[in-house]
Amino acid sequence: MNRKVSFFVIIVIIAMTLGVNAWGSGPGNSSDELCDECQAIIDSVDPDALNEAEIAGLLLMREEEKLARDVYLYLYDIWNHRVFSNIAGSEQAHMDQVALLLEAYEIADPVVTDPEYGVFTSPLLAGLYDDLTTQGEASLADALAVGKAIEVLDIDDLESLIAETDEEAILMVYENLLKGSLNHLSAFERQLDRFGS
Q1: pLDDT band at 167, cuts 50/70/90?
Q2: What is the DSSP letter of 16?
Q3: Burial per residue of 56-83, b for 16 or more beta-carbon CB atoms within 10 angstroms, e otherwise
Q4: Under CATH, which number does the domain 3-10+52-193 receive?
């Protein structure tokens, strides 16, 4: 999906959900572990098998999962709401899974200063981090709306990337990330429902 369109999707979703105004709580945690045989699949990849679009997709997802983790940790520090800390842990697992792929395919990792939060090689993601953390500071409802917007972005991008590759290892990881993002989206929607949105 075009990055400008993805950014527009985030802004529209945030605008649609900013009107919520009550309290909510909930875990929002999900299982994001890879299967036992997954490491063998990753270890068997051919580093020369990827095209430029597949490489770009891996680099995007590494930093997009970092965006989610960093924003959620920032919002947890402000609101002390466990949904953010729980899902941030899952986003770290997602980051780690993509990092395994980058290593297997011998692609330089863009996350070179981890765990430095809010730092990205992508100017778009750096801008999104600033915008989303600022919006999430306004109220807990706004923060939950930001979480929902991030998960919608992740789902959209993952679905697009899944359609563009036939690499078994990449599909395995992307499908696992997609399942996690769908769970996270449901968690944020449950919290927002408590606000009457």
Answers
A1: very high
A2: H
A3: ebbbbbbbbbbbbbbbbbbbbeebebeb
A4: 1.20.1260.10
